[in-house]
Amino acid sequence: MSxxxxxxxFYIGPWVFDIDTAQAxxxxxxxxxxxxxxxxxxxxxxxxxxxxxNPWATSLIGPAHNALNRDYAMARDxxxxxxxxxxxxxxxxxxxxxxxxxxxxxxxxxxxxPQLPAHLxxxxxxxxxxxxx
Length: 133
Known about the structure:
- By secondary structure, this protein is of the alpha+beta class.
- The protein has 5 helices and 7 strands.
- Helix content is 29%, strand content 26%.
């Protein structure tokens, strides 16, 4: 990138999501934010159990217990909206996927913040920023 910063990418399973392009889409097509339930999303992404001392506790879609920088997380700006993509499931129903803001979600959960703002991408926008690994 021309500003000397590495591109921001989110990897999950066979996909990679381009967060910089997602930000550009949001900037080009402003939209309202949606409030997400922090406890529900933190539980779904395994963040509620992340600090469990049991080394066998793990999440299927969130970070491993040693993969999230807690100091970095606790310094993130909770006013900055998360980004939620919409992936198409095998039955063709869109399903939400948090692609930007895991550290903010962790901080909000740890601090007992009930909701965070999030930008929701459309299925078409998600297709634009998603690629195979």
